[in-house]
Amino acid sequence: MDKFTDVNDIGPLDIAVREALEVKADRYGFTHLGRNRTLLMIFFNSSLRTRLSTQKAAMNLGMNVMVLDVNQGAWKLETERGVIMDGDKAEHLLEAIPVMGSYCDIIGVRSFAGLKDKAEDYEERVINQFIRYSGRPVFSMEAATRHPLQSFADLITIEEFKTKERPKIVMTWAPHPRALPQAVPNSFAEWINATGYEFVITHPHGYELAPEFVGNARVEYDQRKALEGADFVYAKNWSAYADPDYGKVLSTDRSWTVDSEKMGLTDNAFFMHCLPVRRNMIVTDEVIESERSIVIPEAANREISAQVVLKRLLESL
Ligand code: CP
Questions:
Q1: Where are the alpha helices (DSSP H) in 7-78?
Q2: pLDDT truncated to tens, each residue of the chain (317 aa)?
């Protein structure tokens, strides 16, 4: 594997999940792979889980780790070619990327969607420049349109908790006060569609995701109907994708908050969320604190998904 930006990079999912469970059972069994290898993690945006879990995964593999927060202490970076750089941005990505590549063996990049220009976001301009100019294997720590380390961890968690061969998974939009990217729901849809499990996406009108991510999922605008018989409920907010409302918050309707009454419509479903979560906007205290909430093991599996990805990138060096 020479990059990891979407589900296609990981190959067959059953093999990837099996490898994840092997790594989880023996997470210090591969330290020889990372000896004298350096991971550089570059954050254009904030993080708790991705930062800690990926660093831990790299340390499990014996790697050295460097972290750069681009917006705290580094030169401000220009990302557009052709710009006259007479503003506050002191360095261009086109120099910064190969320089960063010269100090490491593998690069992880977090760069969220700006939510202003759909074409720019969906071209994945920033991470693609790293892939093109760094000379190193690059993996996504959440890019503009996908968050594959999260989706891989979500899938590992589903495989660990499922009690049916083909569970019903419902991804539901839920309210949030701020405009959030579509990366997590896009990516979750992409990965769950690849499993062939029963998959329903529910959201208010206006929150339709890009068709290439919805794939064969059933879209149901009645949240209660969607939740009937669910085995897993995956809650997430996202901003509008469709024009002319791209990147906008169209609703903060708290009748979409996941509560105990709605969880009662499911087949005793597990509750999932990638975190961080806004309590009593996305989900009630009662649901997230219930014994069917698996948000903590889900977050813990971020270490495992990152370790499998790093292991495969190291094996290909
Ligand atoms: N779920 C996730 O990626 O969390 P962070 O934004 O804290 O890294």
A1: 13-25, 49-60
A2: 999 999 999 999 999 999 999 999 999 999 999 999 999 999 999 999 999 999 999 999 999 999 999 988 889 999 888 999 999 999 999 999 999 999 999 999 999 999 999 999 999 999 999 999 999 999 999 999 999 999 999 999 999 999 999 999 999 999 999 999 999 999 999 999 999 999 999 999 999 999 999 999 999 999 999 999 999 999 999 999 999 999 999 999 999 999 999 999 999 999 999 999 999 999 999 999 999 999 999 999 999 999 999 999 999 99
Give the residues surrounding ligand 1 with Cβ less than 6 Å away. 47-50, 142, 150, 274-276
- Phi, psi angles (nearest 5°) of residue 248: -95, 155
Q: How far is the CA of 273 from the centre of ligand 1 (A)?
A: 11
pTM of the shown model: 0.97
Looking at ligand 1, which atom is closest to the CA of residue 274? 1
Our mutation pick for probing the ligand 1 site, out of 154, 274, 295, 309, counting the most ligand atoms within 8 A of Cβ, is: 274
Sheet holding 138-140, edge to edge: 3-4, 138-140, 106-110, 38-43, 64-69
